[in-house]
Every structure is written in C-alpha cells, then in structure tokens.
Amino acid sequence: MKPTLFILAAGMGSRYGGLKQLDGLGPNGETIMDYSVFDAIRAGFGKIVFVIRKDFEADFREKILSKYEGVVPVEVVFQSIDKLPEGFECPADRTKPWGTNHAVLMGKGAINEPFAVINADDFYGRDAFEVIAKDLMREREGKGDYCMVGFRVGNTMTENGSVARGVCENKDGYLTSVVERTAISYDPEHRIVFTDENGEVQTLQPNTPVSMNMWGFTPDYFDFSEREFVKFLEKDLNTPKAEFFIPLCIDTLINSGEARVKVLDTDSKWFGVTYSADRPAVVAKFAELTEKGEYPSPLFPKN
Q1: Which has the closest alpha carbon to 144: 211, 217, 214, 213?
Q2: I need a labelling partner for 207 at 20 to 30 A (CA). Which of 81, 121, 267, 270 fits?
Q3: CA max distance for the chain
Q4: Which CATH architecture has domain 4-139+211-253+269-291?
C-alpha cells in the first residue's frame, strides 16, 4: 500500500508575514510545498492530503491544487479552533490554533493508510522523502509502530535568526525523548547554541538529530491523539496560548510504552523561509537545484 503525505498548511507564518505557503520561490513560481509534493510522488507516495484554514480555501485551490490535477489524488481537510471533542467548547477569547497535533487530528476520516506528516513551509529534500517512504512501506509490528526523520541540526540552521527545533535523544535507533527548543542559533563563534530552562547556554554538535516535524504514522495514531487531546483540554482549555504539539503526544506515548518511534537518518539539508530575510537565499537555492537537474522546470507542466 502506498503511503499518504499529510501536509500541515493551516499556519499563517507570523514571523515571515503573510501566507508563505503560497509564496512562489521556484524558477516558475513554485512554492516550497510543490517541491515536497514532487519529491513525495517520486519517492512512492500515492495521495496528498492538505490541512488548511477554510478562509483561504479558494486561493489555495486556485494557486496550489490546480497544479496537481491528473498528477496525484489530493484531498483537503480544515483546521479551526472550534473543532473540539464532544463536551468541550472553545473559549470566546481563544485566537491561537490548537497546535500541530490538533491539525493532524483533522486527517481522521481522510487517511486510512500509513502516512507522513510534514510542514508546508519547510523544504525537506529528496533523500528525506525516500527514507520515510521506504519505512512507511514496511510491515508494521502492530499499533504504535512509528518513525521520524532525524535531521542533523547543522543542516537546519539559518543565519538570519533563531529557529525552533525538537532536539532528539535516541537509544538503539529509537526515540527516547524529543524536547522543543524554541531559540537555537549561532553564537559569535558560529557554534550552535540554545539557553536551557535553567538559563544556561548549551552547545549542540552539528550532527545532533532534531525533529523538523517529519513524522511517519499509521492510522491508529488518530485514536491515541484524540485521547491525549481530551487530557490536554481538561488541563489547558482556558490557557490562551497552550498548544497540543506532536512531540507532546509522542513523548507521552513513548513513556507509556504504547509507541516506538524509529529515528531515520538523512543527509538532506533543510531550508525554509522562517524570516523574510531568508527568501533570497531560498530562491537562489531552488534556481541552483534546477540548474543541476535535480528538479525539472516547471515542476508540474500545465495540462
């Protein structure tokens, strides 16, 4: 069975300013998502599902989905802050979305096969898609048999500010913990550093595995997520900025012994438009990859 690619595209991109998911960065106006879809099809994925906000559906269908007609089956699901389990009502003052794992929950009903989850605004690279597709196509060992692509932190940095990354600990190739570090950056000596919860500056080696939100799940993950989301809401329904992140749910399942997450290595170099100052370098990178013959131009010729 071919796996499905589930693309989280409901975020606004506040640091970048504007809907960066729709920003044309390739030589023919391709978005970062277009490259992900192209790489996924090439790696053997059979369907693409997008989670978006209802208010930019028309734009999204016109600018993005129209390109894939006749190329790959596509479905769209919607994330909104009032989509909550029975018995819960969204607080009137809540404006922030409920987070990445809430977005994943929106795929229940649309996805019935092993699937990979990625961000819309990150370029993951051909090797990363091949690595995760191969793992998703293997026989599963029952429920909770998941995987993630562990990028080397040195391949995921920007010179234009700090980045948030899930720093991974693993043993015998399986994830033992993932801790979200919200401000990893270069110091004046170009070392990769972050400040921990005690205010101490910590250094990361360039090959430290980090999560770029590229996860591999089977549909049973939706049931685990629903259960954990109820627990999250019981505790944090009225905390305006609390979010239900994928690493939060994964950590719980690893600690309870209900899931094992294989850490897959890749030599892919991440890039993305975290800050508007990143844009010129990303445009140049896509031009270079196209020139080298890594990608055709245009990626998806008009029918």
Answers
A1: 217
A2: 121
A3: 57
A4: Alpha-Beta Complex (3.90)
Q: What is the DSSP string of 151-202?
A: EEGGGS--TTS-EEEEEEEEETTEEEEEEEEEEEEE-TT--EEEE-TTS-EE
- Give the single-character DSSP code of 113: S
Distances (CA, A) of 178 to 89, 128, 169, 193, 255: 30, 19, 6, 17, 11
Tokens of 66: 């129209």
Q: What is the pTM of this model?
A: 0.92
- DSSP element (H, E) containing 75: strand 74-78
Contact 53, 10 (CB under 8 A): yes
Closest by CA to 98, choosing from 84, 111, 86, 78, is: 84
Q: How far, CA to CA in Å, does 30 sit from each of 24, 47, 121, 127?
A: 5, 19, 12, 20
Domain ranges of the chain: 4-139+211-253+269-291
Reduce the DSSP state of residue 92 to 3 states and report it.
coil
pLDDT digits (tens, 9 = 90+) for 180-207: 888 999 999 999 999 988 999 999 999 9
Residues 6+ apart with CB under 8 A from 150: 168, 170, 209, 210, 211, 263, 264, 265, 266
